[in-house]
Specification:
This protein is α+β, with helices and mostly antiparallel strands. The chain has a domain of 175 residues. The longest helix is centred in the middle third of the chain and has 35 residues. It is globular. It has 10 helices and 16 strands.
C-alpha cells in the first residue's frame, strides 16, 4: 500500500510540474525588491532579521565543516532537525555552541540550497572536472524562502515565515490582477533589508516593429547603434565615495575602532547607490532597444578583458557587460544574434569590400573609394550588415538540413519543431 502511495505521489508531482511548465509558457517574469520599512516596523523586527542572517551563516558553516570530513559528498545528507545545536566562533576565535532559533521554513530552505551545492560539487569532481572547494562564510546576505509561504496581505504589508505582518515599501508597483509568486528571498544590503519577489504575470501581445539594429561597444561612445544613436552608460564615482575611500585608508590601522566601522558602512551604502544608478541605466537602455527593435545584432566582444587596458576604469564604471549579457539571453527567443568578435566590422568598407587598417586615435573611417563615416557609426552599420547576412545564411542552411532529413511525403517546414535549436547551433 505504501508503494502505491509513493507512486501516486510521484505521478501527482510529475503532473503538477508539467502543468506548471505549460503555464510558464504563457507568463512573463518580473522581479521586485521590496525594502523593509525602517519607520513603520518595530526595532524587534530588525533584531530578529539580523539574528536570522547570523544563524543562517552558522548553519552553512556547520554543513561545510561536516562535508569536509567526508571524502565522498555525492550522497551528502544533513537533516536540519538533528542539527539544532551548532558550533561557531566568537571574536576571540573561541568555540561557542548555540541553539538555532531560525524559522523552520528558512532553516529548511537554507539547508536544501547548500546541500544541493555540496552534492553537485562532489558529482563534478567525480567526473574529473576541476572545481574549487566551497569556502566558509564570513557573512550571509541572502536567505531563500520556500515557495508558497510568502503572501501579499495588502498594498503595504507582506507576510514571510517568522514575520506575520511586515511593512515593506514598493508594493504599489504590483498593480496586477493576476499574478503568481514563483520565488522569494530575504536579502540584506548596506541600505537595509529587502524581500525579493519573482512574480509571474500573463504575457501581453508584443507589438512588432519590423526593425533591426546593430550595436557597437566602445570606450568614448559606449554604445552606438546603426541608426546613429548613442547611449552613455558610464557612471563615475561620486565625490562622496572618493572621500569615504580616503577616510577608510586613514583608519586602516584602527581595526576595531568605531570610526572605521562607521566609515565602512557609509562606503558600502555609497557603493550600493552607484550600483543602483548603473543598474537603472542598463534597464532603461535595454527596454528602449527591446521595445523599438525586433532583432538586435552584436559582436561577441570580450568586455571583461577591456578592464586590463588603459581604459579599464571607464569600462568598469559602465554597464556594457551587463547589457551584453542581457541581450545574449534574447538569442533563444530569436530576438538577438551574436557575431564572432573576429569579423572586421571596423576595418571593412561596406561599399567596395576593402579592408583598411585604422588606428584607435582615428575617429573617422576613410576608404579609397570615397566612403567616409564616423568610426563607431560605421562599425555599428557593419554589424547590422554582417548580422543580417549571417542570419539569412543560417536560416537557409538550417532549412536545407531539416528538409533533407524529412521524409518525402512531408509538406512545408512550418511544422518542424527543432528548427530554432538548429538555428542557434549554426549561428553561435
Amino acid at each position: 500500500m505504501e508503494l502505491v502511495r509513493s507512486e501516486d505521489t510521484k505521478a501527482k508531482i510529475k503532473a503538477s510540474m508539467a502543468e506548471t511548465h505549460a503555464r510558464r509558457k504563457t507568463q512573463i517574469c518580473r522581479v521586485f525588491e521590496l525594502k523593509v520599512s525602517i519607520r513603520h516596523n518595530p526595532k524587534s523586527v530588525f533584531e530578529k532579521l539580523s539574528n536570522c542572517f547570523r544563524e543562517a551563516k552558522w548553519v552553512i558553516n556547520d554543513m561545510l565543516s561536516l562535508s569536509k570530513d567526508n571524502p565522498d559528498n555525492s550522497m551528502f545528507d544533513y537533516k536540519y532537525t538533528e542539527h539544532r545545536d551548532v558550533v561557531h566562533y566568537d571574536k576571540d576565535k573561541n568555540p561557542v555552541t548555540s541553539t538555532i532559533t531560525l524559522p523552520s521554513v528558512l532553516h529548511r530552505a537554507t539547508v536544501a540550497q547548500k546541500k544541493t551545492d555540496i552534492i553537485n560539487l562532489a558529482k563534478a569532481k567525480k567526473k574529473g572536472i576541476k572545481v574549487g572547494a566551497l569556502k566558509f562564510k564570513s557573512e550571509v546576505n541572502c536567505i531563500p524562502i520556500i515557495t508558497g509561504f510568502t503572501k501579499i496581505l495588502d498594498a503595504s504589508h507582506i507576510t514571510i515565515p517568522g514575520f506575520r505582518k511586515l511593512k515593506v515599501n514598493g508594493l504599489h508597483q504590483i498593480e496586477f490582477e493576476e499574478y503568481e509568486i514563483a520565488d522569494a528571498k530575504l536579502i540584506r544590503k548596506a541600505s537595509g533589508y529587502y524581500v525579493k519577489l519573482t512574480i509571474m504575470l500573463p504575457k501581453e501581445p508584443r507589438n512588432r516593429t519590423c526593425k533591426s539594429v546593430g550595436l557597437d561597444f566602445g570606450i568614448k561612445n559606449t554604445i552606438t547603434t546603426s541608426d546613429n544613436k548613442t547611449y552613455d552608460c558610464k557612471v563615475q564615482e561620486t565625490e562622496y565615495l572618493k572621500y569615504l575611500s580616503k577616510m577608510l585608508n586613514r583608519h586602516k590601522k584602527e581595526k576595531d575602532s568605531k570610526r572605521r566601522w562607521n566609515c565602512r558602512k557609509q562606503l558600502a551604502r555609497e557603493h550600493e547607490h552607484v550600483a543602483n544608478i548603473r543598474k537603472d541605466i542598463c534597464n532603461k537602455i535595454y527596454h528602449d532597444l527591446v521595445s523599438n527593435y525586433d532583432v538586435i545584432y552584436i559582436q561577441d566582444e570580450q568586455i571583461k578583458n577591456w578592464r586590463q587596458t588603459w581604459f579599464g576604469k571607464q569600462v568598469q564604471h559602465s554597464c556594457m557587460g551587463a547589457l551584453k549579457q542581457r541581450i545574449k539571453m534574447l538569442v533563444k527567443a530569436d530576438r538577438a544574434f551574436v557575431l564572432s568578435k573576429w569579423l572586421p566590422t571596423t576595418k571593412m568598407c561596406p561599399v567596395c569590400g576593402a579592408v583598411n587598417t585604422i588606428g584607435l586615435d582615428e575617429r573617422t573611417y576613410h576608404c579609397d573609394c570615397g566612403y567616409t563615416k564616423p568610426r563607431d557609426w560605421h562599425s555599428a552599420c557593419n554589424v547590422l550588415l554582417f548580422g543580417t547576412t549571417k542570419r539569412a545564411e543560417c536560416v537557409e542552411h538550417a532549412s536545407a538540413e531539416v528538409a533533407s532529413s524529412m521524409p518525402p511525403s512531408s509538406t512545408g517546414l512550418a511544422q518542424v519543431a527543432p528548427l530554432k535549436r538548429k538555428l542557434e547551433a549554426h549561428c553561435l
